Amino acid sequence: MEEKEKLKRDIAEMEARLEEMKKNIPAHSVKPQQIIAIEELEEEISEAKKRLNEGEDWNG
User: Fold this and answer.
1) Taking burial as the number of CB atoms within 10 A of a residue's CB, which of 3, 5, 45, 57 is the most buried?
2) What does R_g of the chain's alpha carbons equal in angstroms?
3) Per-residue pLDDT tens over the stretch 43-57
4) Dist CA 44 CA 22 (whole Å)
5) pLDDT recorded at residue 57
6) Which long-range contacts (CB under 8 A, 24 or more apart) does 18-23 make?
7) What is the 8-class DSSP label of residue 42?
8) Does residue 45 sit within a domain?
C-alpha cells in the first residue's frame, strides 16, 4: 500500500513540475531542450500511471 501511495505522490509531483515547465515556455524562440524535457517528463508520467494501473489489485 505504501508503494501505491508513493507512486501517487510521485505522479502528482511530476504533473506539477510539468505544468510549471509548460508555463515557462516563451511564446517565441522555444528551445529544443525545453520541448525535449517536457516530452520526457510526459513519458515518465505515462509510465508511472501505467505502473499504478497495473497494480490496481495491490494487497496491503
Assistant:
1) 45
2) 14
3) 999 999 999 998 876
4) 16
5) 65
6) 18/42, 18/45
7) H
8) yes
Q: Is residue 14 part of a domain?
A: yes
40 located within any domain: yes
User: Which residue, 17, 54, 21, is CA-closest to 36?
Assistant: 21
Quote the number of domains for the chain: 1
* 5-46 pLDDT, tens digit each: 999 999 999 999 999 999 999 989 999 999 999 999 999 999
Q: Which residues contact 4 (CB under 8 A, 6 or more apart)?
A: 52, 55, 58
Domain that holds residue 22: 2-54
